[in-house]
């Protein structure tokens, strides 16, 4: 990316006064997640009470097998008691993201975007647990927000991004490659500019900026590497962007694998095939959850 | 007499939220450890059905009782084999795994052909090892014929299909299939590559059969395996699950040396090599997993 691209992206992102569809509770929640030691349950419940649809969706999600409860809890407070504060915060954040792209108005199918983000969040959390990392909720949040640049690209560069999306679908190439070929920059740069505007935690900004170029991450390579692998795995297991990517993925030979291996020796013992099969179990649940939130499950176009 | 089905434990529903007896997950883990076959949560009911059939035959009093038979000497190996038979039965059909076929046509073929473009003999060799009654090699042959005028123009495709069982090989050669084996075959392929035998059965057309050589082969026969060189693709679905770890490892090593550099080895869709060979690279395609023998130019050998 050139300097002129960089300044143009900053300028366009600054011009976006508010992300039109992002629920008002989204940014305060992100801030709360960054300072979880000081948060109390009442504060979260108060924040959520401003948006009834988010609260209702959160309770429905908490009752999904993906999040561990057999039945939806009756209130946000009850959810916190059963699942813990941080889990409920991440579920809330997931609901907010689900509402960021209303149907019919955006280039990306919102259910496809949300399905990929939720899938990546869950894969990152599971992988983080397998590796014995210290903060699984952070891994979840990083997976959830890694592609947030797509929202910016849809708003600020609709024509060019639309062409990139079409090329990616027609040629079966990764979306970020099509973006770069069309625009000279990708959702990583637009997402990074947004993360700066929102003053997101630096590790999350790093993930958003470098999840397709892990070796360029100077600050938090293991978290970026984790999200990079989670993203790839999702795209290979029916949680991608709704088109067939004509590519072969060798996770163990990916530079991200080496970075993770240096940090977590347990990675050597992970049975990657079994992990993939277990992910397939979650894929069913994710599709069901997306269908319940958006009405219908998105179909995969095969080219 | 009280039968196992009367005392049946909480059976996982095909789609539902009824709590599952945790022993089924324990059995699922044991099956994976012994055979490399993984029954996903949504297919746990198939494992449960297999267990119930075995429990009825054995007159096992409970799932716990059946678990003991699966884990206690001296009959555990025999019982595990019987259970594996139960849970893999009926999996054979034409066009069983569309994601594998997509990977083959959309990613692997273009890659293999590009790599071998400078070869004098433009020949592609595919081996269906443990082909049973022929569904897999015919599926592969039809997909290769679809590429005949496109990607494979100017190339010769040879498909070798082998099985241990003589009767299976004879059935395979006949190439006659009924509704169950054809349940995943779309009308386009039925019309193009089959002719009607009667109102219930279809026979594979001669131009498809011509691509395949059927023969009997024991995968554990080392001397024969040494002669199976020069393969570009090997498919071996739900065969190795019956082998013990030592034999499995030996057969997989044979497969590795039988493959050309840059070739691919496919197992069944829910089957794993379980790290029995560290020379193969595990690779993902959309919806499919394969094992790759790196090409000389890849720098990954």
Explained architecture:
The complex is a heterodimer of chains A (303) and B (301). Chain A has helices at residues 3-15, 26-34, 41-49, 52-62, 76-83, 85-98, 110-131, 136-145, 149-156, 158-171, 175-183, 187-197, 202-210, 221-236, 255-263, 272-294. Chain A is an all-alpha fold. In chain A, helix 6 runs parallel beside helix 8 (136-145) and helix 8 packs across helix 13. Chain A starts with a helix and ends in a 9-residue tail after the last helix. With 301 residues, chain B is α/β, with parallel strands linked by helices. In chain B, strands 6-2-1-7-8-10-9 form a 7-stranded mixed sheet. Chain B has a 3-stranded antiparallel sheet with strand order 3-5-4. The A-B interface holds A 65, 70, 172, 232-233, 235-238, 240, 244-253, 271-274, 276-277, 280-281, 284, 302 and B 17, 19, 32, 38, 40-42, 102, 106-108, 110-111, 270, 272-275, 281-287, 289, 292, 300.
Q: Can you lay out the helices and strands and say which pair or pack?
A:
The complex is a heterodimer of chains A (303) and B (301).
Chain A: H1 3-15, H2 26-34, H3 41-49, H4 52-62, H5 76-83, H6 85-98, H7 110-131, H8 136-145, H9 149-156, H10 158-171, H11 175-183, H12 187-197, H13 202-210, H14 221-236, H15 255-263, H16 272-294
Chain B: H1 22-35, H2 44-58, H3 63-71, H4 76-88, H5 98-115, E1 123-129, H6 135-146, E2 156-163, H7 166-174, E3 176-177, H8 187-193, E4 194-196, E5 202-204, H9 206-209, E6 212-216, H10 222-225, E7 231-235, H11 245-258, E8 259-266, E9 281-285, E10 288-292
Parallel strand pairs in B: 1-2, 1-7, 2-6, 7-8
Antiparallel strand pairs in B: 3-5, 4-5, 8-10, 9-10
Helix pairs in contact in B: 2-4, 3-4
């Amino acid at each position: 990316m050139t300097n002129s691209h960089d300044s143009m992206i900053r300028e366009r992102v600054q011009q976006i006064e508010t992300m039109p569809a992002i629920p008002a509770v989204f940014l305060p929640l992100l801030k709360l997640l960054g300072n979880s030691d000081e948060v109390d349950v009442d504060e979260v419940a108060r924040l959520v009470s401003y948006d009834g649809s988010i609260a209702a969706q959160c309770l429905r999600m908490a009752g999904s097998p993906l999040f561990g409860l057999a039945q939806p809890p009756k209130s946000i407070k009850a959810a916190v008691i059963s699942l813990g504060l941080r889990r409920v915060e991440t579920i809330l954040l997931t609901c907010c993201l689900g509402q960021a792209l209303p149907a019919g108005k955006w280039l990306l199918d919102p259910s496809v975007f949300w399905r990929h983000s939720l899938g990546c969040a869950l894969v990152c959390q599971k992988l983080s647990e397998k590796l014995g990392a210290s903060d699984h909720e952070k891994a979840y949040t990083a997976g959830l927000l890694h592609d947030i640049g797509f929202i910016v690209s849809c708003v600020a560069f609709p024509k060019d991004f639309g062409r990139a999306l079409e090329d990616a679908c027609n040629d079966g190439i990764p979306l970020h490659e099509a973006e770069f070929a069309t625009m000279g920059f990708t959702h990583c740069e637009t997402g990074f500019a947004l993360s700066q505007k929102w003053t997101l935690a630096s590790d999350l900004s790093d993930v958003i900026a470098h999840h397709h170029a892990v070796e360029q991450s100077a600050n938090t390579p293991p978290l970026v590497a984790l999200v990079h692998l989670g993203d790839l795995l999702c795209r290979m297991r029916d949680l991608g962007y709704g088109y067939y990517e004509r590519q072969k993925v060798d996770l163990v030979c990916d530079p991200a694998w080496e970075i993770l291996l240096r940090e977590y020796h347990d990675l050597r013992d992970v049975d990657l095939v079994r992990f993939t099969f277990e992910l397939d179990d979650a894929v069913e649940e994710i599709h069901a959850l997306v269908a319940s939130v958006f009405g219908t499950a998105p179909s995969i176009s095969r080219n | 007499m009280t039968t196992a089905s009367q005392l049946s434990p909480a059976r996982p529903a095909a789609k539902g939220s009824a709590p599952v007896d945790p022993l089924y997950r324990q059995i699922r883990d044991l099956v994976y450890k012994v055979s490399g076959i993984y029954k996903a949560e949504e297919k746990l009911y198939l494992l449960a059905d297999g267990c119930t059939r075995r429990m009825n035959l054995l007159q096992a009093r409970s799932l716990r009782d059946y678990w003991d038979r699966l884990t206690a000497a001296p009959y555990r190996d025999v019982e595990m084999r019987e259970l594996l038979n139960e849970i893999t039965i009926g999996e054979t059909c034409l066009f069983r795994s569309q994601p594998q076929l997509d990977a083959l046509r959309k990613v692997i073929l273009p890659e293999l052909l590009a790599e071998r473009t400078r070869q004098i003999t433009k020949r592609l060799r595919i081996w269906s090892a443990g082909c049973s009654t022929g569904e897999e090699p015919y599926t592969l042959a039809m997909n290769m014929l679809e590429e005949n005028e496109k990607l494979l123009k100017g190339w010769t495709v040879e498909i070798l299909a082998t099985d241990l069982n003589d009767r299976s090989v004879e059935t395979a050669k006949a190439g006659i299939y009924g509704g169950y084996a054809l349940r995943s075959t779309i009308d386009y392929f039925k019309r193009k590559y089959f002719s009607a035998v009667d109102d219930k059965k279809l026979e594979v057309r001669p131009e498809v059969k011509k691509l395949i050589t059927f023969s009997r082969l024991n995968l554990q026969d080392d001397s024969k395996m040494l002669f199976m060189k020069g393969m570009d693709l090997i498919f071996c679905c739900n065969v190795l699950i019956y082998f013990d770890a030592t034999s499995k490892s030996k057969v997989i090593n044979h497969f590795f040396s039988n493959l050309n550099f840059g070739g691919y080895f496919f197992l069944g869709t829910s089957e794993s090599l379980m790290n029995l060979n560290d020379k193969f690279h595990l690779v993902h395609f959309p919806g499919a997993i394969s094992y790759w023998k790196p090409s000389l130019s890849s720098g990954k050998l």
